[in-house]
């Protein structure tokens, strides 16, 4: 088995020196050490070559390289530091920042940086309060796991939804995400389940709409607010809505009559059937932590959060943003969102 993740020791360097003296190739020496041949060949090349390699000299050079202060690329280039800080200010992840920089600046190698380098620049500087701050901005903050038995008990208490149409009857075009207009929806709940926010995600573009639920999230109110949130969408984006079997959707027929959007219901205990929405709800907890009062946020606050998410580059969209992808689709179709 190859040794990984550890620098060469003095004993290994002495073996390399003896192997060179015996006329062995770098690949043969590496096999005897249990190292990749590239590690051994690079070691020989940077320490005098086969003619000048000396184990103790190589060990001294290695220690000198480890000891010297190294300025990270993120800190050394002011343009790169400014671009990374701009991405962090928009709450982009290091991977999103890294890939978006490569996409936006293909001819500027000084603006290329790996997501790992950004993480290192963040965490290696973190001490005390800063380290606590970094921990506090984790996007997912769940602290309590719900067992299957508890989840079953919760489901058993839910009202039966009349005339529900299951996800198995949803048009096949919704599954491959090739056609826009198929949405996934849910509620995220505040402290004590007394406040809520309606979250809607378009499956093709991952475009997000948030709707404030100022108080009681009963079925009548949710149907009305859903109609307000989706009623202004162009016809292209009114194909279907998929929801879980929460009792807040018992008035789904009213919503469908008002908007022309059919509602399909996911199977019990199957969050993956609404994967885009579940993922987005996790991202939203960065802005709306669990156990807090969601009613304090105005609709303008929610619109601002949706704007941030819709302007965030997404790996699944080849690091385009949901807003960019939706804009292209609507432009090609000759439609536009109304106010």
UniProtKB/TrEMBL annotation:
Belongs to the transposase IS30 family. GO terms for biological process: DNA integration; DNA transposition. It comes from the Bacteria. GO terms for molecular function: DNA binding; transposase activity. Keywords: DNA recombination, DNA-binding, Transposition. GO terms for cellular component: cytosol. Signal peptide: none annotated. It comes from Mobilicoccus pelagius NBRC 104925. PANTHER family: TRANSPOSASE (PTHR10948), TRANSPOSASE INSI FOR INSERTION SEQUENCE ELEMENT IS30A-RELATED (PTHR10948:SF23). Residues 167-330 form the Integrase catalytic domain. Pfam families: HTH_38 (PF13936), rve (PF00665). This is Putative transposase. InterPro entries: Integrase_cat-core (IPR001584), IS30-like_HTH (IPR025246), RNaseH-like_sf (IPR012337), RNaseH_sf (IPR036397), Transposase-Integrase (IPR051917), Transposase_IS30-like (IPR053392), Transposase_IS30_CS (IPR001598). Required for the transposition of the insertion element.
